[in-house]
Design a protein that fits this description.
single chain, alpha/beta, 7 strands, Rossmann fold
Length: 161
């Protein structure tokens, strides 16, 4: 059985909702592991066949907890993941592209293969109150996240990736 690992971090709930939607892909023959960034380690990365990395964008960067995940797993996994598929999801207040670029650079170092462009959900949270408030991701965006999970899972199941 192949494994899709979804590593995520969330404070206000938006990215968590996105990750959970991607995990609901329900592809036969695929085990989906949904792990918080703080809980995921090198063994989890090495045991997976494909990845979704989900992060909020904080101050135009990936969340510190996601950076910590990559810091802890990068070197133990280097040269051992070559060619495996990945995708990125970002929950952002206004843009999200820089967080996606940061993850793409790390994935390039790992020699992962992107199978989709970054999926960015923009909450338009711009005030301190809106930024700190719990997020509700719209159903249309959650469907996009579920579709991304399904694409990765189906590609793994069919041997495309």
């Amino acid at each position: 059985m192949k494994t899709l690992l979804i590593v995520w971090h969330s404070v206000t709930g938006g990215t968590r909702q996105m990750a959970e939607s991607a995990a609901a892909c329900g592809e036969p023959g695929i085990a989906v592991r949904l792990l918080r960034a703080a809980e995921a380690g090198p063994d989890d990365v090495l045991a997976a066949d494909g990845y979704i990395f989900a992060t909020p964008e904080n101050l135009a960067a990936m969340a510190g907890a996601m950076k910590d995940f990559f810091d802890r797993t990068y070197y133990p996994s280097l040269d051992r993941l070559n060619g495996r598929p990945y995708a990125t999801m970002v929950c952002a207040g206004s843009d999200g592209h820089n967080a996606a670029r940061q993850i793409a650079r790390i994935a390039t170092g790992w020699r992962l293969r992107p199978v989709a462009g970054p999926l960015i959900v923009c909450t338009r949270a711009q005030t301190p109150e809106a930024i700190a408030a719990p997020k509700i991701v719209p159903p249309t965006d959650l469907a996009r996240c579920r579709d991304l999970g399904a694409v990765l899972a189906a590609g793994l199941a069919e041997g495309i990736f």
